[in-house]
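tool=predict chain=A
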Amino acid sequence: MRRMLDVLPESAEVRDGALAVGGLAANELADRFGTPLVVYCEQTLRSDARAYVDAAPADALVAYSVKAFPNVALIRLFAGLGLGADVSTLGELAYALRGGMTADRIVVHGNNKSDDELRAAAEADVGLLVIDAADDVPRAAAAGVRSVLVRVTPGIDVDTHPAIGTGYTGSKFGLPPDDAIEAIRRAREVGLEARGLHLHLGSQLLDAQAPRMGVDWLAGFAAECRAALEWTPAVVDVGGGLGIAHVDGERAPAIGDFVGALLARLQHAWRLHDLPPPRVLFEPGRSLVGRAAVTLYRVGVVKRASESTTYVAVDGGMSDNPRPQLYGVRHAAVVTSRVGAEADGQYTVCGKHCESGDVLIERIGLPAPRRGDLLAVPATGAYTLGMGSNYNGVPRPGVVLVSRGEARVIRRRETVDDLLALETNG
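tool=predict ok
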């Protein structure tokens, strides 16, 4: 069980064989707020945010990647700790502003920005907008945007699922090097302040090798920009991508070690090319919120389907966590009232949706699950509910934030009435 606690939030503990988070028993939370329920641990959120702030230089910006989980309460917490926000749509920008992020600490992304999104960025006077396509340049200038970064695609493959790699040759994100140089040239000609460069290689990275390669490449590219344009980046955004452990056996670098490795490499690479040191931006998402949450499900049907497969069906599934289907993510689980009990067999944890692929966990040892048991699935704080749906007309779960024996709802549970409210009589 000690290893199981490693993938649970910091405040997780076992009391008389039962799981508690934030000083509250999981069963108590489920009884009070219903299931499925996403439970965020404030202690973990604060700890991981401080790890980034403490490891980064004083002038750096750590911008929470809002897409990981758009939530006003979490954004407000991060704003209070000095973080910024990385957004890519009108909705995410609205979340950031409602959460108290000051505009100068907001970075606006998007590979297909609408005119409305460009105007909203300009009207909010955001700190930076990231140029991701050639026609972003004249359209951003016409909208009234002031300061920009140019995202360059280095052609570096990373060890992650193909769907969440972004820096490879042919990616839909960013510009090839020659096009990026031309975008910088055009940006300066049309009156945009080209502040620097942006690089992001991919997500759920479990070591710093590829990001260090990316920093080396970026230094060489910055030197090319100096030669071609007599311009050097004052700002370098190294993106995000640091992964988390989902199951026993997965290991991810500590936040401080990861940031320290990138900064050391950047300092060395910039010095080799005799470049002035830039201000550095980071855009963490998963590594800020992924470990902080656990999802609680109520067990329904337990059904032997074959000699080798027994299903444990829960009251959620791919509508609140599509990542196992999209990216092959593996999860752990524990029966919350019998933590540490010996497993009596191997089980497949599935959801309630009308898809054979609606499987959260392919195979896991559990102690004889029964109808009514509560199952806790850790490491579900990032890209789960934020990517959720209402498939099969299933309302999305509620979300609570727990700390020191207190729990508050930070996203209410949807109802069927909420779903029907969007319908018309047409």
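The first helix runs from residue 2 to 5. The domain at 42-289 is CATH 3.20.20.10 (TIM Barrel).
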